[in-house]
Amino acid sequence: MRPGELIVRFRDGLDERSAEGALRAVGGREARRSVLGHHFRVILDGELSVAAAVQRLAAMPEVDYAEPNGILRKHQGAMLSPNDRFFRAQWNMKLLGAPRAWAIQKGKPEVAVAVLDTGIAFEDFGPYRKAPDWGSVRFLPGFDAVNGDSHANDDEFHGTHVASTIAEATNNTEGVTGLAFGCSLMPVKVLDETGQGSDFDVAEGLDYAASFRENGQNPVKVVNMSLGGTGSSETIKRAIDRVVQAGILVVASAGNDDKGTVDFPANLDNVIAVGAVDARKQRAPYSNYGAALDLVAPGGDLDRDDDDDGNVDLVFQQMPDPDALDAGRHDEFCYCGVEGTSMAAPHVAGLAALLFSQGITSATAVRAALEQTAEDLGDPGRDDVFGHGLIQPAKALSGLGLNK
Fold first, then answer.
1. Fewer CB atoms inside 10 A, N or C side of the chain?
2. Annotated active-site residue in 342, 357, 388, 398
């Protein structure tokens, strides 16, 4: 948890003075109201422990709930920077049959994926530079919940890599490819330069994505969260409920601990939990599994080269160069390989965006298409190792009768 921090939601109709009195009673030194004004992040003065303050608040009749401000972390494993800059290194896109899917649907800019992560290298601003292989990809106005502004730039690298799997420019002779490269991206920074973020900040990012409007409509159809933790948060649960109620599909990574339980928030029923497979369509050795797993997608394996291309089977996308970041610079980029369920989830988010682009309007119908057309791996039917199976973009897109 964040030391000395908690989240509290008061019951509807409570006046400001009463809320302030309750916070002072537990030693609240500073409070920040959420975007929608339903809950507060509170920094304590240290006289009471977080646990004691939460217990005291929970006993107050004017309080709906109180909880520590927990921490979620990116789901990412090892990485490698190869010499090969081209599509031939993307075993993951070939495994999914992406070229066939692109013949059916490349994505539409009116469909956007909100990437809740470390930010995206999407603009030239201050010391930050836009990554080179975005081409004509459209970016919606972003939100930085960590720093409280609109410049959701990537000061780590994880978010740019994830976003590039979804929508990196394709067929432009540079770099590598993105699965839904015709769709738009919304950068939402909820993780800091260490790859960590609080429950409060993640909920802020979710509410931003759900409440965004452009010409009276919300173009965000998918939220990708390549992050998670072992705990739980009522604040995030309720924020996800609001996102789902807005008709948005939520995709999250299962976690990288090689254990039989899926991390939060991917383990929620209204979130698509994504595990990772390697180039053999076997469970990646780090990937979490279990009863809450829904689908699998390519996540990579640093220790294998099953497609015999001379590169280990990582997921290669553009991202800020780690060496430059270590030197405090944000102006150099690489086409780097990373493994993790963080890398698997954006494949599912990208395919979901293609399905929305194909004309499906219901998030429930998109989820059904993803699950019903997945390649069944492991035991027949849904199982705890592969969920419903490996996504099949071309089958999902063509099997709906919208485009043969």
1. C
2. 342
